[in-house]
Automatic annotation (TrEMBL):
Pathway the protein acts in: Glycolipid biosynthesis; glycosylphosphatidylinositol-anchor biosynthesis
Keywords from the named record: Endoplasmic reticulum, Glycosyltransferase, GPI-anchor biosynthesis, Membrane, Transferase, Transmembrane, Transmembrane helix
Name listed for the protein in its UniProt record: GPI mannosyltransferase 2
Highest taxon in the source lineage: Eukaryota
Biological source species: Erythroxylum novogranatense
Membrane topology term: Multi-pass membrane protein
EC number(s) given by UniProt: 2.4.1.-
Keyword presence, Transmembrane helix: yes
Molecular function terms, GO-annotated: alpha-1,6-mannosyltransferase activity; GPI mannosyltransferase activity
InterPro entries found in the cross-reference section: PIG-V/Gpi18
Length: 500
């Protein structure tokens, strides 16, 4: 991948500034509302001793206890679990619902970078501070990856910029600035997808695996490699007529998917070892005796009532209304991408892939037919690029226009272009599956943050906002929705009131 040109660097700098500003805005709102509004639940600073006591669990008097207590009041909702795990490890069965990546980051930073602050504000306050730093820094990095991914997928720097700024101020922003795993998941899932479309498969596997260490739905990212493997196997069998190559492709694809799944299942095995091993049948929990003892599924069902249609109750209607904007936006996004490229979607990208492959083949034939040597191609390339400076700027952003001219540079880029567009298909299918899961299986109000890292949402919103006829109306609705949820979330969530 070639470096961005100056205009693209300006766009990326603007995304960076927007991401940083949005985090300062959220943190300022959190502090403001915590100051002005009394919390619904005042138990945030409570911290009973760890079951396995150690020297770190009992701290001497700190220098500034009020500052420590003020920081600890930000440990609300699921943040309680993440901080507790970072401090004491996995003590209780229900704590295994929270995957270890965020607690590991919190524990590492609190014991290294912020270790000198422990005598000043206390261990738990340092753990909370570490959590806030991890989440906010991870979000800023995820915004950069989102922009780079959007540039490649949309082939339009302005559309990518709009989508990225929308992501910086998304409706679930409060969770990206709190001690929650959303930021780490977004960083590693968006980063993994970017490396995948950039051709760095090994790095993509690593990043997708880390996303599965942050949130359980990170294992769904293996679907991108399933999609890639399916296309590569098809090409090996029907285009190259090479059965051995197809077997190799399938083996490598299966291995990559196993690598993405392995952290989640390793964590389940760790839970089984801690909760089940060394106990008699009478002492074992019910899930320990199952043929496939999955602790995560049991916890979600037993402690939180998660299950198919179990949330379809009249008393939950307000929560369905709270989630209706993000679910509606998801449905509109799905319909938009399907209608824009129906052949690509209904053929799962095979038809589009063949057309692009034919385009590349025709250019290759033209190149060989003209009998142009490398020096001549470079000379033509220089002339062509000088005559089309505007087109040159677009191509420097990795966006390649189909040009049936025998130019060596353009041909080499077109050879790499074939896989890019049809990755919108798995991105959209991924969004559709998660939206259906949020609506039919999960606590539906969680949909706002559950779907907030899905790129097609922002790509669709960006395209609607650029419409010459309805763009202003769409922009008003989208920004009103995002800002309303940012204000509402920063008011309710830090004060221990229910919000998504």
């Amino acid at each position: 991948m070639r470096p961005f040109t100056k205009p693209m660097s300006n766009h990326q700098a603007l995304v960076l500034k927007s991401a940083v500003f949005s985090r300062f805005l959220l943190l300022s709102l959190i502090i403001l509302w915590r100051t002005l509004v009394d919390p619904y639940d005042t138990s945030a600073p409570l911290n009973p001793p760890c079951l396995s006591s150690s020297a770190d669990d009992h701290q001497d008097a700190v220098l500034f206890p009020r500052i420590g207590v003020a920081i600890e009041t930000g440990i609300v909702w699921d943040s309680v679990y993440f901080v507790r795990i970072a401090q004491c490890g996995y003590e209780y069965e229900q704590s295994f619902a929270f995957l270890p990546l965020l607690p590991l980051f919190i524990a590492f930073i609190s014991r290294t970078v912020f270790a000198p602050l422990v005598p000043v504000i206390g261990l738990r306050a340092v753990l909370a501070l570490s959590g806030y730093v991890v989440s906010n820094v991870a979000f800023v990095l995820s915004a950069i990856y989102f922009f780079r991914l959007s540039v490649i997928m949309l082939k339009d720097p302005q559309a990518a910029l709009r989508a990225s700024i929308l992501f910086c101020f998304n409706p679930a922003s409060i969770f990206y600035s709190s001690i929650y795993s959303e930021s780490l998941y977004a960083l590693f899932s968006l980063g993994g997808l970017y490396h995948l479309v950039a051709g760095a498969n090994t790095i993509a596997v690593l990043w997708f695996a880390l996303s599965g260490c942050a949130r359980s739905n990170g294992v769904l990212n293996a679907g991108y490699f399933c999609f890639q493997t399916m296309h590569q196997a098809y090409e090996a069998i029907f285009v190259k007529k090479h059965a051995c190559l197809a077997v190799q492709v399938l083996f490598i694809g299966a291995l990559r998917c196993m690598c993405i799944f392995s952290p989640f299942f390793a964590f389940q095995a760790y839970g089984y070892y801690n909760m089940c091993c060394g106990r008699s049948l009478d002492e074992m929990r019910p899930w320990c005796k199952a043929k496939i003892p999955l602790l995560y599924n049991y916890i979600q069902s037993h402690y939180w009532g998660v299950g198919f249609l179990r949330y379809f109750q009249v008393k939950q209607l307000p929560n369905f209304l709270l989630a209706s904007p993000i679910l509606s936006l998801s449905l509109c996004s799905l319909l938009h991408f399907v209608r824009s490229q129906p052949e690509t979607f209904f053929s799962l990208g095979f038809r589009a892939s063949n057309e692009e492959r034919k385009s590349v083949t025709s250019i290759s034939s033209l190149k060989s037919g003209l009998g142009l040597n490398s020096a001549r191609l470079k000379e033509m390339s220089k002339t062509k690029l000088q005559e089309n400076q505007n087109l040159r700027l677009r191509k420097e952003t990795l966006l390649v226009e189909d040009d049936h001219t025998a130019v060596h540079e353009e041909f080499s880029l077109l050879e790499k272009r074939g896989q890019l567009y049809y990755y919108i298909v798995p991105c959209t299918l991924h969004l559709g599956f998660m939206a259906a899961t949020a609506f039919f299986v999960m606590h539906v109000q969680v949909a706002t943050r559950f779907l907030s890292a899905s790129p097609p949402l922002y790509w669709f919103a960006s395209s609607r906002m650029a419409s010459p006829l309805t763009g202003r109306r769409w922009a008003y609705v989208i920004w009103a929705y995002s800002l309303a949820y940012i204000l509402l979330g920063s008011l309710l969530f830090p004060n221990f009131y229910p919000f998504t």
